[in-house]
Amino acid sequence: GPAHLFRLAGKCFSFVESTYKYEFCPFHNVTQHEQTFRWNAYSGILGIWHEWEIDNNTFTGMWMREGDSCETKSRQTKVHLVCGKSNKLAYVSEPSTCVYSLTFETPLVCHPHSLLVYPTLTEALQRKWDEAEQLLYDELITDQGYKKILKQIFEEAGLLKATEEKEGEKQSENITPEFETVEKCSKEYKQLSEEIKKLRALLGQRGIAYKGNSGE
Question: DSSP characters for 72-116?
Fold first, then answer.
């Protein structure tokens, strides 16, 4: 990620909300501590440093995952990085059960180019990105194919973790071809058109009426 943000490593920032104290340690973890005199006050991990959130060539946040268990899943936290006069944890919420949202203010992200992804990549990965841009411009790959290449680049750079696909998604991929390039789309369309012609001929031979739909 952005090298200038590594100066936050080894530091921790606190925020007290109601009866809870939240602590964010960049590149390490997020913890929650109940502020009470009860003997069994809650204290736990809301997430461990995992990967970046990337949107439109920009680092938009940090994902802390695999925290303490919560019902059937692990607690996780997304830390939003916003421009501020000083380094401080400014806001904490829980938009959905066991998924937390933190807002961290820092002057380190105030420059408009401070969170760009491209400059943090190696020359080899930058070339790979340039090639993907050219292929997209020349309409040799689809937008879906372009996004897939970018995801592979980010994973190779260690910015994103390579996530295991769900079993259901794997099965659907086996059935449905991925149309990553215009050439693949055209080839698949041609094959399907030929199959439809054959099926129509078979139906005609057997005297079965065929009703096509307007969206074919």
Answer: TEE-EEEEEEEE-SS-EEEEEEEEETTEEEEEEEEGGG-STTTTB
